[in-house]
Design goal:
There is one protein chain. α1 packs antiparallel against α2 and α3 packs antiparallel against α4. This protein has 4 helices and no strands. It is elongated and about 45 Å long. Helices cover about 70% and strands about 0% of the residues. It is mostly helical.
Length: about 140
């Protein structure tokens, strides 16, 4: 798959089944792996509980997905980096709050054997469509 330079931007969101959708899925997958790695690392190595560890894990995933989406999926938005980052953070924070609420509800409503990683999967799956629409239209959509 050819790599697109960061300066290239799309005028519309990637079509379903396109390389752009693959890139968005890849970004989400990479963010998910970072999310889980930070979550587990903070639980095991730093001794944090699953609720406290989830907050920096979401932040690390957010940074990972922005870098991949900006570089490969959507391209630069044509806005200043600061404006684009502010828009991305706005969508990401709303998504993160939804993600954390779903994660917390799942952990509180399930038996003890239900791992934090399983709750993370449920929360991420629920928030993916919101994130895609927010990023493709509000952050990286046509400037105007």
């Amino acid at each position: 798959m050819p790599m697109r330079p960061a300066a290239v931007r799309r005028s519309s969101p990637p079509e379903p089944g396109s390389a752009g959708c693959f890139s968005f899925a890849f970004a989400g997958g990479a963010g998910f792996i970072v999310d889980l790695a930070v979550l587990r690392g903070l639980i095991e190595l730093a001794g944090l509980g699953p609720f406290a560890a989830r907050i920096p894990a979401i932040g690390a995933a957010m940074l990972t997905t922005w870098l991949i989406n900006r570089t490969f999926t959507f391209g630069a938005s044509g806005r200043t980096v600061g404006n684009e980052a502010a828009r991305y953070v706005t969508v990401a924070i709303i998504g993160a709050v939804l993600n954390y609420l779903i994660y917390s509800a799942v952990l509180l409503a399930t038996p003890d054997w239900f791992l934090p990683e399983m709750a993370t999967f449920v929360a991420v799956a629920c928030v993916t469509v919101f994130s895609y629409l927010g990023y493709s239209r509000f952050v990286f959509g046509v400037k105007g």
